[in-house]
Design goal:
single chain; about 425 residues; alpha+beta; Heat Shock Protein 90; five-stranded mixed β-sheet; four-stranded antiparallel β-sheet; about 55% helix; rod-shaped
Length: about 425
């Protein structure tokens, strides 16, 4: 993955430019220091010579010439070169003057008797800094290039170590966005800022993935659960036209009201389940809920040949959400009616294990509880058992499935009240 403004390139460029900047600053300081030292040496030589001339005058009363050939004693400022005298007028405290010939003159003003003298040293031929500057500049440039090359290597290593984890994190994030299953990548990163960022991304993606999954499950759940009450309503409307006045008998009216109420409760409950909202839990009689589901299950009521055996103690209590518990039971009842190879279903509970058992052909599915997973002869959308499993997980119940050649069992370990 390439970026127009790469952090990697910025780190390298910044490190390299900073190194060159330091080299230039250091070189400037070094050359400046050399010039300052050289000037101070000349000033000290002039000062020492002026001191020697003054002591000699005190001892002998004679004014002697300087001992060094590049020095000359002047009676006053007017006797110095005109350009030097002019610079003195402009800057009276100045002790170093530039000559028109390109050299420089260092001066020392002192008094002999009642007269002021100026000792001037023409150091044009002694300034080694200027003479060696071309050679020094070449070596300075070589040093700058060498240091810059070393800095470039170091910056590449630093950038790789600094940006490498970010690059891997970017690739993992891009991979995680395109995967349907959770992609665990935070463990690959050290326990530092990058690791914390990776953990945050991973948690965020997992949270978003769960939200999308709940939304997808809700769509399937609604499609699955509303089929039964919709079928009831369609049956009640069967044979009528828009011109015919619909008159329902007592049984049909009861079915109609129950179907509408069931649709409303189902939608409300599934929305709460999808949004992970708080669901109302209460103590329920398992047998009472079972009887309510059986009595109002239209597929079971329309099948007079189907035998239902219920072995549940009327005193058995459990804590659950009533609507979700009815959705769970209705799904298992519908599966038994639709897909049983025999017209019977046994519902029993022993030691807190609720068992739904019926005759069935072998279930040739790798994961029957997986969403959209269904058999070849199924006319549903493969959502019933998946919804049952998710309801059990919400209630903290364990669910197992046993399928043999002629027998099918769903076992749910409940938490009794």
């Amino acid at each position: 993955m390439k970026f127009k403004h790469s952090i990697y390139r910025r780190i390298v460029a910044t490190f390299l430019l900073f190194t060159v900047f330091l080299c230039v600053i250091f070189t400037s300081v070094l050359l400046g220091y050399a010039w300052v030292i050289e000037d101070n040496i000349f000033n000290r030589l002039v000062k020492n010579e002026a001191s020697f001339i003054s002591k000699h005058y005190e001892n002998t009363g004679q004014v002697i010439e300087p001992r060094m050939r590049f020095m000359q004693l002047y009676n006053n400022w007017q006797t110095l070169p005109a350009d030097v005298a002019q610079q003195h007028i402009q800057a009276p405290d100045k002790i170093e003057f530039d000559l028109a010939t390109g050299g420089s003159l260092h001066v020392k003003v002192f008094t002999l008797g009642h007269s002021q003298y100026v000792l001037a040293a023409d150091v044009s031929g002694l300034e080694v800094t200027k003479d060696y500057l071309p050679v020094i500049s070449i070596w300075i440039l070589i040093a700058i290039f060498g240091i810059s090359a070393i800095a470039l290597v170091i910056s590449l290593v630093i950038a790789k170590n600094a940006v490498g984890p970010l690059k891997r994190l970017t690739e993992d994030v891009a991979l995680s966005k395109n995967e349907k299953q959770p992609h665990k990548f935070s463990k690959k990163f050290p326990n530092n800022e990058i690791g914390f960022l990776a953990q945050t991304f991973e948690k965020t993606f997992d949270h978003l993935r769960r939200i999308l999954q709940r939304e997808s499950d809700f769509t399937r759940d609604v499609s699955h659960e509303l089929r039964t009450p919709t079928t009831i309503l369609k049956n009640l409307m069967h044979g009528t036209t828009h011109k015919t006045l619909i008159i329902l008998n007592k049984k049909e009216s009861s079915q109609f009201c129950y179907a509408v109420l069931e649709m409303e409760q189902t939608i409300t409950t599934l929305l709460a389940l999808a949004r992970q909202e708080s669901l109302h839990f209460e103590e329920l009689s398992l047998l009472a809920v079972l009887e309510d589901c059986v009595i109002n299950h239209f597929e079971l009521n329309d099948n007079d040949q189907f035998t239902l055996k219920v072995l549940v103690d009327s005193q058995y209590k459990l804590v659950a959400n009533k609507n979700l518990l009815k959705i769970l039971i209705n799904n298992l009842l519908s599966n038994a009616v639709r897909y049983s190879s025999g017209d019977w279903l046994s519902i029993s509970i022993v030691n807190d294990v609720l068992t739904f058992e019926n005759a069935s052909n072998p279930l040739l599915l790798s994961d029957p509880f997986k969403s959209n997973c269904k058999g070849e002869n199924s006319v549903g959308i493969g959502q019933g058992l998946n919804l049952v499993k998710r309801v059990c997980a919400l209630f903290d119940w364990n669910i197992d499935l046993e399928s043999t050649e002629n027998n099918f069992k769903i076992k749910i370990r409940l938490n009794s009240a």
